[in-house]
Amino acid sequence: QQRSADGAAASADGAAAAGAEVVEAPERKAEYADTASQFAEHRKEFEETMRDKEKSKAFRQAVKEYQEQFNHKVEIEVQNGRKLADAGLETSGFVLLQHTSAVHDR
User: Fold this and answer.
1) Around Cβ 93, how many Cβ atoms within 10 Å?
2) Mutual angle of helices 53-68 and 26-51, in 10-degree steps
3) Largest Cα–Cα distance in the chain?
4) How many Å apart are CA 72 and CA 79, to the nearest integer?
5) What is the pLDDT of residues 20-31, one digit of tens each?
6) Among candidates 68, 75, 72, which has minimal Cα distance to 99?
7) Are 42 and 36 in contact (CB under 8 A)?
8) Of 95 and 40, which is predicted with more confidence?
């Protein structure tokens, strides 16, 4: 049952992308309405929290503490930095530091 529902959703997505009119099952529309309603309720609660200075401060501190568990610096020694020039590390938050050396390309 689940597999056919997923297949129907994928078919509907494909049809919508192709510009065809898609008629959704009533259950899906109800699910979307519930999700939108929940989102609106959570947004309202969040906005109320952010208007209160004390609650806002506590919320921001909790977010900061949560994020800090994922933020840490690591330094490693690289033997040949030329191999990392196009590694795309900057898109992952890594930074290659400038380093001067007496070694030159020939």
Assistant:
1) 7
2) 110
3) 71
4) 23
5) 666 667 778 888
6) 75
7) no
8) 40
